[in-house]
């Protein structure tokens, strides 16, 4: 909760007092420098890193570290799955190790189906990726699996084709800001587990 004053750059007159009640660590600022409503999307350059500067020496240092950690996590997430066709569905033809698991047995939906009583290595890895996913890899948050093979048929009227299994999760976990080293280690161990268990190549 960072307290700061916003003044008019031309006149120096008071415009707004921010007391930090948005509870956002790096809120978006509007053109006047006033924090926008929680959940507002904006470019990283439009975010206020003042709250981070106390521990990270400056806003610039904090922003640079944020970008470095987010980008490192993205590299690891991309080794697990890239939604190449941008359809929000994990297809066996997508890039990454998890699509390779799907390709091993294209009609067997047990490896990534959270509805059964079996917790597989692939399911554990996808869960870990959901915990670590960034705002630039949002497709991990609500991915579909096995469209046409498994899941409910919720079309109106039903068309007899399963819509797929959706794995929902929370929003991005702060782009790695809370514990980046742990998230990177979690993803690295997950990658190794997939390769070892399924005999995959990266």
Q: So what's the overall shape?
A: elongated
**What's the SSE pattern?**
EEHHHHEEH
Distance between the termini: 43 Å
Which percent bin holds the helix content? 25-40%
Amount of beta strand: 5-15%
Q: Residue ranges: pLDDT <50 for 5 or more in a row?
A: none
Structural class: alpha+beta
Main sheet: which strands, in order across? Answer: 1-2
Question: Which helices and strands occur, and which strands form pairs?
Answer:
Layout: E1 4-7, E2 14-18, H1 50-56, H2 59-80, H3 97-104, H4 121-132, E3 142-145, E4 165-168, H5 180-198
Antiparallel strand pairs: 1-2, 3-4
Helix pairs in contact: 1-2, 2-5, 4-5
Structural notes for this entry:
The protein is of the alpha+beta class. The chain is 34% helix and 8% strand. It contains 5 helices and 4 strands. The strands form 2 sheets. Strands 1-2 form a two-stranded antiparallel ribbon. The chain has a two-stranded antiparallel sheet with strand order 3-4. Strand 1 (4-7) and strand 2 (14-18) form a beta hairpin. The mean pLDDT is 90.
Question: Would you summarize the structure shown here?
Answer:
The protein is an alpha+beta fold. It is built from five helices and four strands.
Keyphrases for this structure?
single chain, two-stranded antiparallel sheet, 5 helices, elongated, alpha+beta, 4 strands, 202 residues
